[in-house]
User: Fold this.
Amino acid sequence: GFGGWLGDVVAALGEKQPLPVAPSPLPKPEALAALTELVQVVPIRIEFKNILDAIAPSDAQVFTPPSGQKDFGTITLVYCSGELHALMEPRLPKDDATALNDQLADQIAQSHEAFYGEERRKTPSKLEDRLIQVPDGKIEPDFVWRTLESITWPACESRKNVTPDKATYILAFPMGMVLNYCRGLMCSRSLSIFPNLAKVLTRFINEEKVDFKYTTIQLNRNYAAKMHVDGNNHGPSFIIALGAFTGGELWVLDKEDKFGTCKQKDDH
Assistant:
């Protein structure tokens, strides 16, 4: 059996419960144990380095798939301050990544079905976007709400800092410029799936706030975020709430309050 965080992961999978967040810092022995198990399932080669090894090249600890099994390429992970970080280069070639995804497609589908059920398997489609009619005149809030109701919202599992306790995922996605950990600044995937939705949202915001400059729209649906700090934001944010709901107040930290207390801000 497994101990520590990896043991908690195995137990959660067996009970079909939300996966535990990795402790920070993640002890190095647990990181190594996790990588040992990972290559038994995912046929890739992993080079593991400590942060000083990455700066001054030396021999890496290598994890490989079982003997006789083809690997689809090598990724390099660096252990720094109790966290695993992926280097931007080299990445798996596109053809190898596609072949790997195809090979694991059945296992991924079965895992998603067992763990998330029917609701989680729904994914956005370009057909939904083609059905969106962008008006010629002023875009009203009710039209934006009905448009957002008409699409399938993707499940987001990565934003653990805002996901409510005991929730496996939230319905949320960014639209615009995003900071990808491996590729740097890039356009969000949602722009290619929902170009008409992007036109509706940007026109709506530009009509409501003519002088407001922004790069990204973050869309969230039907969840109360945990108390958190948006550490990657630069400059002011403009927040709009749409739909029929109760509650939904926004709490902000007043930096001018020397005690650092939170005050309620209502813009209904």
